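We store chain and fold; example below:
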Amino acid sequence: MSIAKRVQQWATFARQWHIYDCTWQNPFDSAKLISRHLMGKQKPIYHPMNDCGDHVVVINTKEIALPGDEWIKRVYFHHTGYPGGASWTLAWQLHEKDPKMVMQKAVYNSMKGNLQRRYTMQRLHLFADDKVPEEIMANVTNQIRALREVPQRLDMIDKETLDNFPSIMDYPNDYILR
């Protein structure tokens, strides 16, 4: 076997480390993308019973954006296992308690039918902000591209760019705004 083929084979079977930024991303669309890498579906050796998935580091989970009024309408169910232990929690309440939980539940639910999803979830590393330990960042070799472009806030744009932005119309000097 040539050296190039040996390296290609090693790269196929090795577990890669990916990083994904959740800033202003829909957690349910992102979960499909993340679960694809966790399960190893992008690899040519993928098989549902083969554990060939990669590690995924997800940052900025507190900055997720649910569509529409999902924050107040989406409900998460939990049962303690004891009688009367059922509880329903709104998405915004769950996110307020633990900013990583909505993303974790979205990824877990996106892997329905995966018989090994409990073990696959162990390769998911969630962080509420962009502070990741150095021992984890040393392993990261790939970045997963975000599904949506993050819009730039007006207060973050420099004054020169705002002044040079073309205006739709020039108001007369005696124009009064009401």
Notes: Strands lie at 17-21, 55-59, 75-79, 86-90, 124-126, 142-143. The domain at 14-147 is CATH 3.90.1180.10 (Ribosomal Protein L13p; Chain: A;).
